[in-house]
Specification:
Helix content: 25-40%
Structural class: alpha/beta
Strand content: 5-15%
Number of domains: 2
Low-confidence stretches: none
Largest sheet: 7 strands, mixed
Shape: globular
CATH topology of the largest domain: Aspartate Aminotransferase, domain 2
CATH superfamily of the largest domain: Type I PLP-dependent aspartate aminotransferase-like (Major domain)
Number of helices: 11
CATH class of the largest domain: Alpha Beta
Distance between the termini: 41 Å
């Protein structure tokens, strides 16, 4: 097997330089094949193979458990997206007027709006400026007071690319009574993530970014001790202890995290995500992280060396994951983004700049092409 055997898994058109994995990622070949095969099975056999589909769903739960190093699959739920998972937490906890939630000023709207929606219960949101204080983590911790019930933060900030020290936060919160909720959508599939080492109570992440899977399916981790503490607001046949016993009149919620899955599972999404996870598992998340870091280092070094470029993403390697966001002093971000898009360089406008987000397989030629477009004659 060649050193970079995984390159054959990706078939992006040659005119594209795809640097938007922090947005929506392309699928690997095996994921396309798995979804197509699933569609063909539905076309020709309908749901006659449903028992095998359920086995695949179980295999996915186990794959996700390993990915985040959860203790048991009973802590893993499959929900539609990160927003739904965060909403399960926000509206599942019991709140009192005067309680507060601490977040950062760099959160994606999903990790802000769900907490702001609690205002009708008398809950306030305290937003920490991550640029203030001795460290981003200390800025968050400084916002905690006697009425703080939960700290919610992204593992990697979607705009600036700042990587948080989650283990430090977890240690600081241990025994405090403040629950710890992590939006890990910009970490899972890009860098190692260990929920036990971090000490998070809740973790949410979609599969369509660094996990290279279809949209519409997300991981929700709920630490076992909180499973029955979150009040349920969605009910249906799938979330009961005896799912499949349709004649039973009495019911109770499942004892595991399936209690948060009210209805029929997204089997197409299950098929795609499980296929993508097999690729990441075969490569190894440590190798993925190393290859990704090499690509990010190249962007930081080349762009950061030009005096016209202001890096928004931290230069320190331990403070970044797969995102490099920057400003061009001579070209407004919106204009630069339009110019790059016109050259088929797929990226995003975020945090007042342009965001590049390669992945472990991104060809160096694509990265150099993007750099040249930023620094070239038009720059």
């Amino acid at each position: 097997m060649s050193a970079n055997w995984w390159q054959s898994e990706f078939e992006l058109d040659g005119d594209l330089a795809y640097l938007n994995h922090a947005g929506v990622a392309p699928w690997p070949r095996r994921t396309r094949d798995a979804v197509v095969a699933f569609a063909e099975e539905n076309l020709h056999r309908g749901a006659s193979g449903y028992p095998r589909w359920i086995e695949r769903e179980g295999a996915l739960r186990e794959s996700l458990r390993r990915l985040i190093n959860a203790r048991s699959v009973v802590e893993i739920a499959l929900l539609k997206n990160t927003s739904e998972a965060l909403s399960v937490v926000a509206h599942g906890l019991s709140w009192q007027p005067g309680d507060n939630v601490v977040i950062s000023n760099q959160e994606f709207p999903s990790n802000r709006i769900v907490w702001e929606s609690l205002q009708r219960h008398g809950v306030t949101v305290r937003s920490a400026d991550l640029a203030q204080g001795s460290s981003p983590e200390q800025a968050l911790l400084d916002q905690i007071d006697a009425r703080t019930r939960l700290l919610a933060v992204s593992s990697v900030q979607y705009g600036t690319g700042l990587k948080m020290d989650l283990s430090l936060l977890g240690r600081a919160l241990r025994g405090s009574g403040v629950k710890f909720c992590v939006d890990a959508i910009q970490s899972l599939g890009a860098i190692p993530f260990d929920v036990e080492a971090i000490g998070a109570d809740f973790v949410a992440a979609d599969g369509h970014k660094w996990l290279l899977a279809p949209e519409g399916l997300a991981l929700f981790y709920c630490r076992r001790q909180w499973l029955e503490q979150l009040e349920l607001h969605q009910y249906g046949w799938h979330m009961v202890a005896d799912a499949g016993d349709y004649d039973r009149q009495s019911w109770q919620p499942a004892a595991d995290a399936r209690r948060f899955e009210c209805g029929s599972p997204n089997m197409t999404g299950v098929t795609g995500l499980q296929a993508s996870l097999t690729l990441l598992d075969e490569v190894g998340i440590e190798r993925v992280a190393v290859e990704l870091q090499r690509r990010v280092d190249l962007l930081v070094e080349r762009l950061g060396a030009d005096p016209r470029i202001e890096l928004i993403t931290p230069a320190a390697a331990d403070r970044r994951a797969g995102i490099v966001t920057f400003r061009h002093r001579d070209r407004p971000a919106a204009l630069l983004h339009r110019q790059l898009s016109a050259q088929q360089i797929v990226c995003a406008a975020r945090a007042g700049g342009v965001r590049f987000s390669p992945h472990f397989y991104t060809p160096q030629s694509a990265i150099e092409r993007a750099i040249d477009a930023v620094l070239g004659p038009d720059g």
